[in-house]
Amino acid sequence: MIKDRIRDILDELVVEDVPYSVEIPNESFGDYSTNVAMKLAGRLKKNPLEIANSLKDRLCGYDMFDSVEVVNGFINLRLKDEVYISALNDMDFNKNKGRGEVLVEFGSANPTGPMHVGHGLGLVIGDMICSLLEYYGYEVTREYYINDYGVQVDNLVESLKINVKKILGEEVDLEEQYKGEYVKEMAQDFVSGGSGDLKTFALNWCLSDIRKTLQDLGVNFNSWVSEESLHQNDSLNKLIEKLKKDDLVYENEGALWLRTTKYGDEKDRVVVKNDGMPSYFASDLLYSKHKSSRGYEKIITILGADHHGYVQRYVASFGVAGFKGEVIVKLAQIVSFLRSGEKVRMSKRAGNFFTLQDLIDEVGRDACRVMFISKKMDTPIEFDIDKAKEKKLDNPIFYMQYAYARICSLLKKVPEEGCCEVISSEEDKRLIKKLSEFREAIKKSAEELEPHKLFIYATELSSLFHSFYNSEKIMNLEPKAKVSKIAIAKSVKRCLEEVFKIFKISALEEM
User: Fold this and answer.
1) Is 466 part of a structural domain of the chain?
2) Which of 182, 189, 250, 477 is an S-S bond match for 481, by CB 3.0 to 4.6 Å?
3) CATH number at residue 424
């Protein structure tokens, strides 16, 4: 908000279209600083000091600036207290509207057993991206793609069949592909009262378990798409015939190939193998066609880091499908989990693995969600389970929630109402500057699809509030200063509430 006002003034004074920044410098230089003079120097072929001094003279005519100084080509600005007071009293935390519709697919996994902890990152990142986009003004569809077609599901059904036979006392020579205790439990449930074919029972059993985990994690999908359903009604052959007419499919060595290079792929891709069976890519093509036909302006997909080599062909499939909007693929990096300094294993087939439900039950939803965004998406994460459970200030979830609880406690002790009228300390200014950056933090996080940026903002805001709280006894201040401090605290509370809604974590009034 404050930065925007400064930019508006600079845009009035600077006719040339040059990229410049307005930043918060070291406090010894001022409240804000801009490099606009240095950016103009090359364009105007003038000394940056000459440009800066010329701008300084004109900036001094604006009421919001207490002082304007030029240092090494930078223009340093100090603001009048009235600017901070006005910014706080006009603070806006309302959601944006009207940016269009977007589809976000994330978290999709083979429904062949409980979700292991490795799925947690993509789920949390995807869900927070959706929340950010909603706050930023988009209508968002959260979509889960059920991978219920292919060998993995067949292996699960075969493993279930073997376990059912064992329970019934039949002799079995085959070895299960999936050996987890959950398969034995599934088999017992089937013998105890299951009905229908084994495949339907197995998929429903696994999906019921997945839905429960998603609910406990705070992730609610409003669209579920079955891979198997995409192959019904001879849909693949019908699509191939259409693509042949468009000269996008050709035959080579007995297989059918798709001209994905026409849409940026490094090479063409097989869509039907020489044995007549659909390739793995065929399902992606059908799904991209399905997504493209539903009227979205933007389609976002969150994939695991192991899909890095798959992005080009995946994006190309939308070109083949005729989609004219924006396609974005984000990769969630590998997560390793530590307990007592040792890595936790995650193999589903090996039988003994740490599930996402286990993690949620142990550390709680709040810690689970925040720890997953404590680093950038493209950075491998070490999730320390022991640290996630600690009630210490170096635990980021505790740090933010403790700031909120402190505000609630303060407001109970000092119930005074009113607007901010005076700025009585540098801590006041620091907090108001950070609060005024909230909408910019939302904008950057949403446009760059990086929830981590909002996490950084929230931890910095919490840190500034802790300093503000510790700097002086608010209850002992004179009335105007006390009411003003409370007004600042209330704005921090409201800001943290909005962040917590996006993060889907608890706003605890007591800790």
Assistant:
1) yes
2) 477
3) 1.10.730.10
Q: In which domain, by residue range, is 497 found?
A: 396-503
- Is residue 52 a contact partner of residue 74, using CB atoms and an 8 Å limit? yes
268: how many CB neighbours lie within 10 A of its CB?
18
The ranges of the chain with pLDDT < 50 are 348-351
Let me know if residue 105 belongs to a domain. Answer: no
Question: Is 417 within the bounds of a domain?
Answer: yes
- CA–CA separation, 192 vs 183, rounded Å? 14
Cα gap 300→315, rounded to integer Å: 10
In angstroms, rounded to a whole number, what is the distance separating the alpha carbons of residues 3 and 433?
A: 9
Calculate ∠ Cα 98-102-108, nearest 5°: 150
Q: Is the pTM of this model over 0.85?
A: yes
Q: 249 near 256, Cβ under 8 Å?
A: yes
At which of 79, 110, 145 does a domain end?
79
Asked, for residue 473, whether it belongs to a domain, the answer is yes
Q: Are strands 65-71 and 32-34 parallel, antiparallel or unpaired?
A: unpaired
At 256, which amino acid appears?
L
Q: Which of 79, 97, 118 is the last residue of a domain?
A: 79
